[in-house]
Amino acid sequence: MSRKWDRFASRGDPTPLWVADMDFSAPRAVVDAVTAIARAGHYGYADPDDAVTEAATARFRERHGVADANANALRWLPGLNPGLNHAVRAARRARGGRAVVTAVCTPIYPPFLHASRNDESARVEVALRRAIEDGRARYSIDWEALETALAREDVGLLLWCNPHNPVGRVWTRDEMVRVARLCVKHDVVLCSDEVWRELILDEKATPFCGAGSILDEVDGLRERLIIMTSPSKTYNVAGCDVAMAYIADKALRLHFARAGSDKAEITPFGYAATLAAYTDPSCEEWRQRLLTYLRANRDHIDAALSDDANARELMTWTVPDASYLMWLNCEKLVDRVERSPFEHFIEHGVALSDGAPFSAPLSARINFATRRDILDQGLDSIVTALERA
Ligand SMILES: Cc1ncc(COP(=O)(O)O)c(C=O)c1O
């Protein structure tokens, strides 16, 4: 039943370094909380109680920078992906039912692209800029292209990812203020997916600026902002199907709620996992240990690729500020092997995420949230695949 381990098993059991979950079990306190629900045997409809409501509200206040976060602005979701779809429909409703064009910065986590498609509305893709130094790539915003996109009369929504999947950037305060001001100037709803926020690998070096923390600085943002997060990435509970949106503006919140009124129920497991993850002190200790492990894995891959002449010649890679995802640009590899990086790597024993669904067919993504020996197996396959190119 593991998507990551089973999906490609029939292709020679490649080392699975793809879909974004971790090979680590959730913190003990989360396992205990979910187990207690399972044991109780009542799997009927669940409502969030005061404790989990306060825990989620406090998270928006303390980790996402919404100084005046209050429970009325919360909306529970069975995942962020439904929320992305609701945001598209909410933006349409906010414009009196007229279809809106959705702007996204690519490459991007595929459901950002699917959300407009699902609504049968259009999207505009703004390519991020890539700067390269010694094989390492760092992405930034193409301001001119972004403003051109947002200035279009039919663009009504920017689906924003901070930290960004797949390029791993934590956007700076200056960047966030500029993005928010552009949204206000052109009357665009800003939907900020902040699910990777608690996996910033060195927060001193790249401090987080949540969209909710600049509400006072950017007039008009409050009326246009949807923030989403979840314990799913940080605590490895994506299968518990729980996420939260925070929408300060009442009218926008109503649009979002109506647009998503067909959502699935949030299960009691989701609420229990959230409460434990957000309130049990051992979960924060677990998160700190996790960050240390992930940072070391990131640096280990960076060192291995830097030492490999073929990698330096055929690829660029990110050293992500956040997440457990490393983004490879394999243009030169594709020139040589004349097939997608995904196909080339899987043939050599490692399953990476295919770049094509991210709107980047010449790329691939490594998930390094795994045990070091498994990561090393995958790295050996990558090195061999490059050698044989
Ligand atoms: C940016 C981003 N948003 C949303 C999701 C998925 O969230 P969910 O499983 O809650 O739908 C992911 C999963 O990788 C993600 O990277």
TrEMBL record:
Its EC number is 4.4.1.13. It holds the Pfam family Aminotran_1_2. GO terms for molecular function: cysteine-S-conjugate beta-lyase activity; pyridoxal phosphate binding. It is an enzyme of class 4 (lyase). Keywords: Lyase, Pyridoxal phosphate. Coiled coil: none annotated. The keyword Lyase applies. InterPro entries: Aminotransferase_I/II_large (IPR004839), Class-II_PLP-Dep_Aminotrans (IPR051798), PyrdxlP-dep_Trfase (IPR015424), PyrdxlP-dep_Trfase_major (IPR015421), PyrdxlP-dep_Trfase_small (IPR015422). It comes from the Eukaryota. Residues 27-378 form the Aminotransferase class I/classII large domain. The keyword Lyase applies. Its cofactor is pyridoxal 5'-phosphate. Belongs to the class-II pyridoxal-phosphate-dependent aminotransferase family. MalY/PatB cystathionine beta-lyase subfamily. This is cysteine-S-conjugate beta-lyase. It comes from Ostreococcus lucimarinus (strain CCE9901).
